[in-house]
Automatic annotation (TrEMBL):
Database matches in Pfam families: LRR_1, LRR_14, LRRNT_2
Claim: Signal is one of the keywords in the record: yes
Protein name according to UniProt: Leucine-rich repeat-containing N-terminal plant-type domain-containing protein
Keyword Transmembrane helix: yes
Residues in Leucine-rich repeat-containing N-terminal plant-type domain copies: 37-76
Organism the protein comes from: Ilex paraguariensis
Signal sequence bounds: 1-30
Top-level taxonomy: Eukaryota, Viridiplantae, Streptophyta, Embryophyta, Tracheophyta
Main localization (coarse): membrane
Residue span(s) of domain Disease resistance R13L4/SHOC-2-like LRR: 97-236
Database matches in SUPFAM superfamilies: L domain-like
Membrane topology: Single-pass type I membrane protein
Cellular component, GO, one term: plasma membrane
Length: 383
């Protein structure tokens, strides 16, 4: 009888294991269904807050189709959870529903180039898987939600060209995976928080066209991966931190139209070897144009107007073979001597030069005959 008992026990064990697996699968199925229903209802609430969509974009958002087939919606293959919402450029008018926070599997949101108004809902902070948020070119107001700092997977934040007010939340310094931060063309006030130095992955930052003020935090120099810095048309004052000039990865350095002062480092051509754009116009910079700038072989734009830069213009600017724009107008350049404009001969080697502004300085002497040797690319000449 003992073998029969063993068979019976084995059968019971198998039956128990099968039942447990069945219950588990039923539980997973129920959870998946509930999750899918949560996503569907959240999307319908999102649609409810949109009062106009000119091209019928949201017409497919109804019960005749599964929500994963709705236009602009992407779902995961396995669990059919919403992972992306891409509705850019469809003329959508309305506000962003707080129910967007229920789409907890979202990784990608792109609502740029619409007419969304209202505020960014605090519930966005519940999207802990979110990597990409683009709300550029809408009419969104209010402050940047502090809760956005909870989205620790964020790589890209693009909120440019809206009506955002208030300060840049210091809490955003916790987003150590953030690569891109675009906040240009809003109504932001206050200063750049010191915590920005904690954004160890940051490569691009633009806060141009706001009402920001104060000094630039020295912590900006900690951003060792930074390639693109654009902070122009604000009210920043004081000196540019020397540590910023030591970030060798920078290709675009734009700080024009502020109240900044100081001088360009003598070795800038060595510390910023990848520079393609240097724009410091309409500030209070002094000093001279560093001769080392001619070491930056990829430089395309050298924009220094409306400052207090003095002294001679380097005679070897022609080494900058990729130079397209040279604007040094309205400064204190030159010495009122006959050799002041000799650098122009070198510039005729810049075959890509399209604009040359030299007016409003202290140049003496006559224009060299070589001025007739400029490439046909040159379309603007300010003397």
């Amino acid at each position: 009888m003992e073998p029969q008992n063993n068979i019976s026990n084995a059968f019971c064990s198998s039956l128990l294991l099968f039942s447990m697996n069945l219950l588990f699968l039923q539980h997973v199925s129920t959870a998946t269904h509930l999750g899918n229903e949560t996503d569907r209802l959240a999307l319908l609430e999102f649609k409810h807050q949109v009062v106009n969509y000119r091209d019928g974009t949201l017409n497919s958002w109804n019960d005749s189709l599964p929500h994963c087939q709705w236009q602009g919606v992407t779902c995961s293959y396995r669990h059919q959870r919403v992972t992306a919402l891409n509705l850019r450029g469809h003329g959508l008018v309305g506000s962003i529903s707080p129910h967007i926070g229920n789409l907890t599997f979202l990784r990608f949101i792109d609502l740029r180039n619409n007419s969304f108004n209202g505020e960014i809902p605090q519930e966005v902070g519940r999207l802990f898987r979110l990597r990409h948020l683009n709300l550029t070119n809408n009419a969104i107001g209010g402050a940047i939600p502090v809760n956005l700092s909870r989205c620790s997977e964020l790589r890209i934040i693009e909120l440019a060209t809206n009506n955002l007010v208030g300060k840049i939340p210091p809490e955003m310094g916790s987003l150590n995976k953030l690569v891109t931060l675009f906040l240009r063309a809003n109504n932001l006030t206050g200063s750049i928080p010191h915590s920005v130095g904690n954004l160890s992955s940051l490569e691009q930052i633009t806060v141009t066209f706001n009402n920001l003020e104060g000094s630039l935090p020295i912590q900006l120099g900690q951003l060792k991966r930074l390639t693109y810095l654009s902070i122009g048309v604000n009210h920043f004052s004081g000196m540019v931190p020397q540590t910023l000039y030591n970030i060798s990865t920078i290709t675009s350095f734009s700080v024009g139209d502020n109240l900044l002062k100081g001088s360009l480092p003598a070795n800038i051509g060595l510390t910023l070897p990848r520079l393609q754009l240097l724009s410091i116009g309409a500030n209070q910079f002094s000093g001279t144009i560093p001769y080392s700038i001619t070491n930056v072989s990829e430089l395309q734009v050298l924009d220094l107007p409306e400052n207090n830069v003095k002294g001679p213009v380097p005679n070897n600017l022609g080494d900058l073979k990729n130079l397209r724009i040279l604007n040094v107008g309205i400064n204190l350049l030159g010495t009122n001597t006959s050799q002041d404009l000799s650098f122009i001969t070198s510039l005729t080697n810049c075959s890509n030069l399209q604009r040359l502004d030299l007016d409003g300085n202290n140049f003496g002497g006559e224009l060299p005959n070589s001025i007739g040797n400029f490439s046909h690319q040159l379309t603007v000449l300010g003397l």
